[in-house]
């Protein structure tokens, strides 16, 4: 799923899903079960959805292709906190309960590490950390050094100069 969402803005939510649907365990009803907001807005055009709803639709469109693995680029970018929580709950369900493998690229490490099993930090094209997500989440020094995250939240300016 690309960062840009790439939904059909002139089609309804339901048309967006059925236009790309492939046979498999993910169908329109299962997508609506994952994202009830989409069912409520099934007759709305793509351009009538909020950014978070468009993101839900983009994830739904990816799932309805019935892939074996999902690749998500910045799924939380630019979303309101309440929608971030809804998306994280959906991602947990997709990964934990449904058993879908996923590769997530996300700058909001504190949020996404609770959904993932393994994590890697890439800096200037090189892997500077790889390991268990829970271990990374608990290691304040690595979070501070590479991600600019402190106990008070993200630090402005990124990685410190050494």
Give a written overview of the molecule.
- The chain is α+β, with helices and mostly antiparallel strands and 162 residues long.
- It folds into two domains: 1-107, Rossmann fold (3-Layer(aba) Sandwich), CATH 3.40.50.300; 117-162, no CATH class.
- It has eight helices and six strands.
- The strands form three sheets. The protein has a two-stranded parallel ribbon. Strands 3-4 form a two-stranded antiparallel ribbon. It has a two-stranded antiparallel sheet with strand order 5-6.
- A hairpin with a 2-residue loop joins strand 5 (149-150) and strand 6.
CATH class of the largest domain: Alpha Beta
Low-confidence stretches: 154-162
Distance between the termini: 36 Å
Q: Give the radius of gyration.
A: 17 Å
CATH superfamily of the largest domain: P-loop containing nucleotide triphosphate hydrolases
Show the helix and strand layout.
Elements: H1 13-18, H2 28-34, H3 36-40, H4 51-63, E1 69-73, H5 81-97, E2 101-105, H6 109-112, E3 118-123, E4 126-132, H7 133-138, H8 140-147, E5 149-150, E6 153-154
Parallel strand pairs: 1-2
Antiparallel strand pairs: 3-4, 5-6
Summarize the structure.
With 162 residues, the protein is α+β, with helices and mostly antiparallel strands.
Summary tags:
162 residues; alpha+beta; 8 helices
């Amino acid at each position: 799923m690309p960062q840009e969402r790439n939904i059909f803005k002139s089609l309804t939510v339901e048309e967006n899903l059925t236009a790309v649907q492939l046979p498999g365990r993910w169908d329109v009803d299962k997508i609506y079960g994952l994202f009830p907001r989409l069912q409520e807005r099934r007759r709305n055009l793509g351009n009538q959805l909020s950014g978070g709803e468009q993101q839900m639709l983009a994830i739904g469109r990816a799932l309805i292709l019935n892939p074996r693995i999902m690749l998500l680029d910045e799924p939380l970018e630019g979303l309101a906190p309440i929608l971030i929580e809804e998306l994280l709950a959906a991602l947990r369900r997709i990964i934990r309960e449904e058993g879908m493998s996923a590769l997530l690229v996300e700058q909001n490490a504190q949020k996404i590490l609770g959904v993932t099993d393994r994590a890697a930090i890439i800096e200037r094209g090189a892997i500077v950390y790889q390991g268990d997500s829970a271990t990374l989440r608990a290691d304040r020094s690595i979070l501070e050094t590479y991600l600019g995250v402190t106990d008070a939240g993200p630090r402005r300016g990124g990685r410190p100069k050494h």
